[in-house]
Design brief:
GO terms for molecular function: carbohydrate derivative binding; isomerase activity. By secondary structure, the chain is an alpha/beta fold. The protein contains 8 helices and 5 strands. It has one domain: Glucose-6-phosphate isomerase like protein, domain 1 (Rossmann fold, 3-Layer(aba) Sandwich), CATH 3.40.50. It has a 5-stranded parallel sheet with strand order 2-1-3-4-5, with helices on both faces. The radius of gyration is 17 Å and the shape is globular.
Length: 192
């Protein structure tokens, strides 16, 4: 076992998991979860879609969310993680603009944007939020680190975790996103 001498791992783990407490102990989070559920149901009723995006691990979270919303919750959802699409749009429009241009090409009236960025400063994600707002699309944001990040300022429904621990923030984003899937389904346990 590789361990740092003198480290009390029980205390370290207590401190680490304390960072997850806001997931289950916040009325503000509950209100946002309910609002996002209501938005997802409205998108479903109008036969529109959730367009999701992020970079790195946030792109993976978006992709997981898009699959679960589509398959389990029956809310059509898509993400833009295809390497061909990313490299084509980044080459033609610049990396900071690729996601906004994907939203432009794929978005329709009634769609909603779900955008994920730990820092809330990723230019490609922020520009996608700006584009969505210009098109009057509702914007749902998942961010961390700084409460005054630019992405959060553009959101209609915001999920924020006051932490700079990337893995913690990303895991909480995944918990919140999949919680809403289960809220739309109406139960936590079901056959998939």
């Amino acid at each position: 076992m590789n361990s740092e001498a003198g480290t009390n791992w029980n205390l370290w783990l207590d401190d680490y998991y304390r960072r997850y407490a806001p997931v289950t102990q916040s009325k503000e989070v509950y209100e946002s979860l309910i609002k996002f559920r209501d938005l997802a149901l409205a998108v479903k009723a109008s036969k529109s879609k959730l367009m999701m995006g992020g970079n790195g691990a946030s792109a993976s979270i978006a992709a997981h969310g898009a699959v679960d919303f589509t398959k389990q919750a029956k809310v059509t959802s898509l993400t833009f993680s295809d390497a061909n699409l990313i490299t084509c749009f980044a080459n033609d429009y610049g990396y900071d603009n690729w996601l906004a241009r994907a939203f432009e090409h794929y978005g329709r009236p009634g769609d909603a944007a779900v955008l994920i960025s730990v820092s809330g400063k990723s230019p490609s994600v922020v520009r996608a939020a700006e584009y969505a707002r210009e098109q009057k699309m509702p914007v749902v944001t998942f961010t961390g680190k700084s409460a005054d990040n630019p992405l959060r300022k553009l959101g209609d429904i915001n999920f924020f975790i006051d932490s700079a621990a990337y893995n913690v923030v990303e895991c909480i984003h995944m918990i919140w996103l999949t919680t809403v899937v289960d809220m739309v389904v109406g139960r936590a346990e079901y056959s998939v």
